[in-house]
Amino acid sequence: MNHALIEILADGQFHSGEEMGSRLGISRAAIWKQLQKLEAMNIPLHSVKGKGYRLPEAVELLNLESLKAHGFPSQKFTSSQLELSVDSTNNRMMSVAEGNVSERHMVLAEMQTAGRGRRGRQWLSPFARNLYFSVLWPFSQGIAAIQGLSLAVGLAIQRSLKEQGVPHVGLKWPNDILVNDGSACGAKLGGILIELTGDMSDACQVVIGVGLNLDIQAKDLTQIDQQAAGVKQLGCQFSRNAMTANIVRHLCEVLEQFSSQGFAPLQQEWNDNDALRGKPVKLILPSSEIQGICAGVNAKGELQLQTAEGLKAFNAGEVSLRALNEHEG
Ligand code: ATP
Ligand code: BTN
Fold first, then answer.
1. Which of 15, 71, 78, 288 is most buried, by CB atoms within 10 Å?
2. Positive or negative CA dihedral for 191, 10, 63, 158?
């Protein structure tokens, strides 16, 4: 796809086919074809007769040059792709992973048409406002070696946001990035989706997907069935390219450490940033619920709950953690 056309439209102003054609040195018919391709990708374009085409608002597009200028660690990856629209960046990396590669790859997208959370839940992924990316990272010691990985990734993002001045960011076991908005649980700023392929007892490929809300608008909130927030709504100013580069740098640093040492060295820092620590919570298991006081995670990254029967540890899997409301418990 020709990024040059979308770069013209990124200012949110109207541009006629003629103007875009002369700026890019191609015919109006060629511009029209490209606009049709953008529409086919579900990129939201407004067209008004006599005025031309525009995006609904000005956006800062991701750009590899700008990412690199902000310290994006492209040397850590065999490939770093930047796409305008994909179904899911995790799907994209899973198909690379199925080739049994032993290199690291990553993909960033401006939007996803089928962004996913855990258990196939939808992840809202509007165009050019948030951050959606997936990293393919090979692990040589099988599935056992990745216990606690989603916690390590969350911590990398939390470190980055903190460094960039985003206030009150916390973590929720096992895969959520939250911001303390005064509610019992906090509002969801981002999430992590980890998927695996390969030999679960030996060399396996892990796809780590990250969705982070940078600008979540009122119309988005009507489509999300829980409290959500974006970095912009917290009053922070940022460049999407600078923020992305910083996050990926922190992520690589943590993944390199995690690959050799596992979760244990990160346990204390994760617990210090646990949004639910010391709070009454319920853990929703496939066929039952357990209530207790959130007691942080152990060195393996398992959730510890202080229950009526003593301290119990739980593995991430088909379980969901929720803060208890005042009237529960
Ligand atoms: P659990 O604790 O059960 O894993 P979860 O909140 O982490 O719950 P997931 O299945 O991991 O749920 O994530 C998908 C959920 O995230 C959706 O059900 C929706 O409520 C919410 N969601 C979807 N898009 C966004 C978004 N852009 N920002 C915040 N939350 C979103
Ligand atoms: C969660 O539910 O909390 C996890 C959400 C993960 C969303 C990201 S966006 C990039 C990557 N691609 C996907 O389809 N999902 C992850």
1. 15
2. negative
Gap from CA of 124 to ligand 1 centroid (Å): 9
Mean residue pLDDT across the chain: 93
Q: Is residue 303 assigned to a domain? A: yes
What DSSP designation does 62 have? Answer: -
pTM: 0.95
Q: Report the C-alpha gap between 37 and 39 in whole angstroms.
A: 5
Q: Could you confirm whether 28 is annotated as catalytic?
A: no
User: Based on the structure, what is the number of domains in the chain?
Assistant: 3
Peptide bond into 167 cis (omega under 30): no
Give me the helices (H) in 44-148, please: 64-69, 89-97
Alpha helices in 55-148, H assignment, sequence order: 64-69, 89-97
Ligand 2 mean position, distance from CA 175 (Å): 10
CA distance 212 to 55: 22
**Token reading at 259:** 């690959």
Q: Looking at the chain, how many residues does it have?
A: 329
Which three-class secondary structure state does DSSP give residue 150? helix
**CB of 238 closer than 8 Å to CB of 246:** no
Supply 26's token pair.
């191609």
pLDDT digits (tens, 9 = 90+) for 69-124: 999 999 999 999 999 999 999 999 999 998 878 899 999 999 999 999 998 899 99
- Starting from the CA of residue 83, give the closest ligand: 2
Atom of ligand 2 nearest to the CA of 191: 3
